[in-house]
Amino acid sequence: MSETATEIERLLDESDMMAYGPEESAMVADAVRLAQEAGEEDLLYKARMRQIASASMTGDSDTMFTAFSWCLGRHDSDPARFPLEVENNDLLWYYKWMAEAVALNPAFPQSQVDQVLDDMERRYRAAGVGLSGVWQAKMANATTAGRFADAAGFLAAREELPRDDYSHCEACIRSDDADYYRASGDEATALKLFDEIIENRVQCGSEPERAQANALLPLLRAGRFDEAKAHHFRSYRAAAANADGFGIMADHLIFLAVTGNTERGLSLLERHIGELPKDPLDVYKRFYALVSYGVLLDAVARSGHGDVEVRGSDMPDVAAVFGVEPRPRTAAELAAESWRVAGEIAEAFDERNGNEHFATEVQRARALADEHYDLPIETRTFVSAELAEPTAPRTPAERLELAEETALLKDDYDAAMQLLEELPEPELLPRYYNTVLAICRGRGDRDGALAAIKARTEALRALGEVRRADQEDELGLVLHGPFNADAADALRAALERTDLEPEVRVKALIALVVHPDSGNDPAADLELVREAAAIAESAELEQLATVRLVLGSVLAGVGEPDAAAETLDALLGSDVERRIRVKALETRARLAGGMGDFETGVRLADELLDLNTAIGSRSWASSAAILAAHLYDDLGRPDEAVNRAQVAVRHAELGDTDDLNSNRYWLGRFLLQTGEPDLAMESLDAAAAGFAGSEGGGAAALEARYWLGLAARHAQELGTAYGIFAEVAHFAAESGEETLVELAIRAHLALGDLLVSVDDSDAVDSYREALRLAREHEQVELVARTLHQLGQSKIKFGDESGLADLDEAIEAGRVAGQDWFVADTTDTKARALASMERGEEAIPLALTAADGYAAVGDEGSAAMAELLAARVLGDAGRSDESVGMYWASLQRLPVGSQAHTGVSLEFGEVLEKLGRSVEAAEVRAAVAD
Fold first, then answer.
1. Mean pLDDT on 857-872
2. Whole-prediction pTM value?
3. What are the tens digits of pLDDT across the range 566-601?
4. Pick from 438, 460, 482: which residue ends a domain?
5. Which structural domain, as residue segments, surrounds residue 303?
6. In the chain, how many H helices and how many E strands?
7. How many domains does the structure of the chain reveal?
8. By its UniProt entry, which InterPro entries does this protein fall under (predicted)?
9. Residue 921 CA to chain centroid, in angstroms?
10. Quick one: which of 80, 274, 484, 820 has the most CB atoms within 10 Å?
């Protein structure tokens, strides 16, 4: 075999092991190209056959038609050399896809559709295979065209035949049948078939996610809201991961429109709008996508947000679908365009089909404006991500301030330079050229920076500040890093001089403090900036606000938070420029969080968000919103944390900022905390994919997938969670990066916990692997934790050697100074001994655990440990001795709490059985009170 043939076989073999998608289809395309170039016609036939499946599953109808037609021609020319079947590829089977594909484009006349279906039937008969698949294909085509009487006849013909190797799979049959019944008006039967798909767990390439999406509206109409919500989440996730899942999105957008979840709907539309131009031959899919856009965007407009710009609507390929020029369009504008083009497509289909089925579909979709179901999907509302339009500057000073904000907060140097086209009056020229200098630093323009310094010093001389100008000329770029590598030494030498003008000395002091390679320790930086502050205050310099900002940051860095807070509060209480206020607010908000003053932190972070919105900086607004989210989370207000994280994500999306993946990651974690695991999965999955596609983002991607696994477990998608934890554990451990070892251990522990929850003894192996890694990498705290879980799992599955693991965990916890952990593990051992009916050993351990819990202030756990001791005594026939334990437990619990009530009722029964009715009544009375 030639090298080329070997390479072709390798490409085909490897593509067979991959999921359908861009990488897989590119590999198959390479195999086709190589076979063509080498004239290897037998291999080309094999590669083209494989390409039919790839193109079908990735939504590339053009390639699918081309490959199928070529293969069919070769087969007809020489059936022996080019057989119907090549390995797992079968031309007869692929006829189903061809028959469907021609029906989905009105450019193919009905005669050609019928010709394909008739040719399919002829070839099936000639090959001696069953016709069940033929009648199924004809039924699906008739349903698509709205010829329901014909569809019913084909369905009946199919039912008369037994299933065979060329029948559609169970999932597709039920899904196609459900399509027929739903489209013809029998939603009850359609739902019955859908229920069979779910109950029997039948699936194939796009099932059950397609059936789940199709069933959303019928489920709502049947009042099955919780099921509809669950199927929405699961279907959307599967469709988003499917290389050809775009066609499934339409039902989800309509579902979100009629349930009032328009913000989520708009987000999904924007996320997938770039797929609208894909596969132009599948006009049917495009029709329903456009109809769903119309339904959703009309709902967005009715909610008062018709003027919101739809992100992605300005993409050239998207605009081409509508036949308009590329520009951002509002929700109201895009709705009108969607209905217009959908109407044009409907007219073309109906002309081809000879009926008004598609026009009726448009009418039905428009009627959904009057259909509403109260089913909130998430906490998201229309988050404010609109930026304020900058007020037109009225004076040269205002223009200069706007230029500074544009350069320093938006990093938009071109726009800043445009604002600097006109020179201000002489008094403002030094500041003007300082701004030009800042822009040159941002651009890395050394020559421009030198020119700006020269122009600035000339302006200073014109104002009579000759000494200052001479000194700034002499120091040059030293004062304006990062151009000079030796700037730190030059600054120190300059500061040895006694003749520096106050403004120059302050500038040199601050330049040395902020220089990345100054080599100063924090104490030295503090001394320098305090000197700068003293000079600026005594001389009342314009630099005072900047110096105070730096002083606050340095004080925070050297562990003087109270002094830092006082300095920054004084700065914020004065009239300072917005660009300085932004940085002061951020520093002060972070400082408040570090000091545990979360109320102040969220107030400042929200003010920061509002200010950045007013300035118009998306990157800073995104940063402020995620800071606020963290602070709200620390404050114990998770719903508001989610809201701010949503704002952060939205700004990052609209601004295409670098923190988008990080924001999505944190949004997912906050959503998980608020009990929204399905939404958390979407956000974490997007974050993980984004990290994986960025340079150096592998570790972050694995961390995001770990949390995705936790979200999947909470969403009861246990198979998904298992696969994710196993994947993260493997790749984190194999990465060779020490920083990922802890993640690998956590993933093994999570995998073990999952397996324990389903009574799978393989959990023990997961914990053992976690323990091996923890010991190998001397992760002391994780060694203790892992031993605890290993011991528990062994005992659960009947291996009493787990007691020794618990003992070792207790000792490891003592060494690490983990007092609560020691108490908790002791409690675990006591419960294990009690379950083994070794009560005499369990009781003292339970009391030891209670003392340990109490010593660290966990009265609730201490009460439960004492309750365990009481119950063990009771089970041993020593109820009289248990009374003291019950009293001790009760005294630790807040009266009126659920735990206090439960223990009281249990204790009352014990006292009653002991004949101590008066005491029993007293205990029960406390509950009644």
1. 95
2. 0.83
3. 999 999 999 999 999 999 999 999 999 999 999 999
4. 482
5. 243-375
6. 47, 4
7. 3
8. TPR-like_helical_dom_sf (IPR011990)
9. 55
10. 484
